[in-house]
Amino acid sequence: MSATLTVVGLGSGNPDRLTLGIVKKLKEASVVYVRTKEHPVMAALSELGIASESFDGLYETLSSFPEVYEAITSRLIEEARTAEAGTQIVYAVPGHPMVAESAVSLLRKRCPSAGITLQVLGGESFLDEAFVRLGFDPIEGFQLLDASGIRRSQLQPELHTLIGQVYDTFTASETKLCLMELYPADYEVVVGHALGVENEESIQTVPLYELDRLEGYGNLSLIYIPANREGDIRKRTFSRLHEIVGILRSPEGCPWDQEQTHESLRKNLIEETYEVLETIDEDDPEHMKEELGDLLLQIMLHSQMEEELGTFDVFDVIQGLNDKLIFRHPHVFGDTNAGNAEEALQNWEGMKAEEKRRKGVKPETQSALSGIPRDLPALMKAYKLQKKASKVGFDWDNITDVIAKIREEIDELQEAIDAGAPAEEQISELGDLLFAATNAARFIGADPEEALTRTNRKFVERFEYIEQSLKVKGRSLEESNLEEMEALWQEAKLKERA
User: Fold this and answer.
1) What is the mean pLDDT of residues 400-414?
2) Do the Cβ atoms of 302 and 287 come closer than 8 Å?
3) Backbone phi and psi for residue 440, each to the nearest 5 degrees, phi listed first
4) Sign (positive/negative) of CA torsion 283, 286, 287, 292?
5) Please, what's the largest Cα pairwise distance for the chain?
6) Largest CB tally within 10 Å, which of 74, 244, 261, 460?
């Protein structure tokens, strides 16, 4: 039978808060290990004649906290496994054993399989002192975060937030940078050191940007951010956006938003998408930020309508997207490899087919052209149709043949026009010509939509040059003629090349 391993908490730092039970357990122990002797209670233990061995040396020899906690866990398990029956081993940690003590979590997982009896005795946590000294009730909404791994996604301004394990200035700096992703630089936060410890306690309120300019960070340091339920702070959170859209659609909200349906907003979704594309073409990040917001609003409104019906909400949309991204990137989140973009795309397509199989759809029974949205712009749809057909071998051999096909389609269009063919036939021949031109774009590695967009932009720039040049001369387009405008057009072309 192995020895008994007991973990006890030494409290937040005030020796008067040690329980009689824990003092008794420490005195009865065959051997006492402490995570660190850098704790105010250690002096009191020495006065009580309780000897101990610390793991402080591990912090010096190992490069990361996880390695330290792993080493502590392994050492304690080995000591308990090899000790004589009846040996009482005590591991003492600052605060409460179940609050921010990774080694204790590891012991709870591993001791049963190692045949070791593990007992955990609580102690006063630094949280107890924080509630008293900082003056807030956790039932109002509270979260505890670890400074060594804090992330923007964890921050919830509407909750009282304590950030522990702020060991040094570097950790304080990393915490500050994370907080400033959500809070203003001058937002007031509270820094506490050794809460409840006589002659050592320090509580300071400082603007966020000064967080890493303070001194005195150590094992007993924390950062406190009081709950703030005002909209100005929460406006950078997704939950606030969801809340606002819900209000707009509610009976107390906006009459216009209340009346909207999926059908009425259909054109808005298309328009907002094209406005985003325009900002990309203009390389205008500030305008892009605004237009992406407008596009996001359309997604939120459509999701809100379904939430009202009880079918799904925007968080279901997010979950579905997260699942899809992880599933379709096995080379990132799984054990598949992708050495380049082409291999990554192959993985993506393979996982898309697997998704369909899981839904009961057999990709092999579908058309090779399936999966292209019905309402795509025609030029973009032609490009995607040709790419899918090309994958199964239905394609031209080379660009020369494609150019020959374009000439053929031009001749057929000319014949239809010369023969006075019905408009429907002329339109059909024009469509064939555009489709053939799309093939040429594909063969030279160009997106036809982008190519035409560039030409449209070029046309606008040259035409505006004509307008401005005439305006300088005190004339308008109506007062000019084709020959003069053509000359200015050629002048604009020359300026482009200069």
Assistant:
1) 95
2) no
3) -65, -40
4) positive
5) 113
6) 244
d(CA 429, CA 441): 19
Residues, the chain, total? 498
What single string gives the DSSP state of each residue in 204-235?
EEEEGGGGGG----STTEEEEE-----HHHHT
Q: Give the separation between CA 308 and CA 392, rounded to whole angstroms.
A: 44
Quick one: average pLDDT of 324-332? Answer: 88
Residue 205 structure tokens: 């309120």
**Quick check: 329 and 350 in contact, CB under 8 A?**
no
Higher per-residue confidence, 16 vs 305: 305
Residues 86 and 55: beta-carbon distance below 8 Å: no
- DSSP annotation of 11 reads B
Higher-pLDDT residue of 3 and 175 is 175
Neighbouring-strand partners of residue 11: 95
pTM of the predicted structure, to 2 decimals: 0.65
Q: What is the pLDDT of residues 174-224, one digit of tens each?
A: 999 999 999 999 999 999 998 988 888 999 999 999 999 999 998 889 999
Q: What are phi and psi of 154, to 5 degrees?
A: -80, -20
Residue 56 identity: D
Question: How much is the pLDDT for 365?
Answer: 66
CA angle 197, 215, 193 (to 5 degrees): 20
Per DSSP, 237 falls in state S
Closest CA to 79 of 33, 42, 122, 35: 33
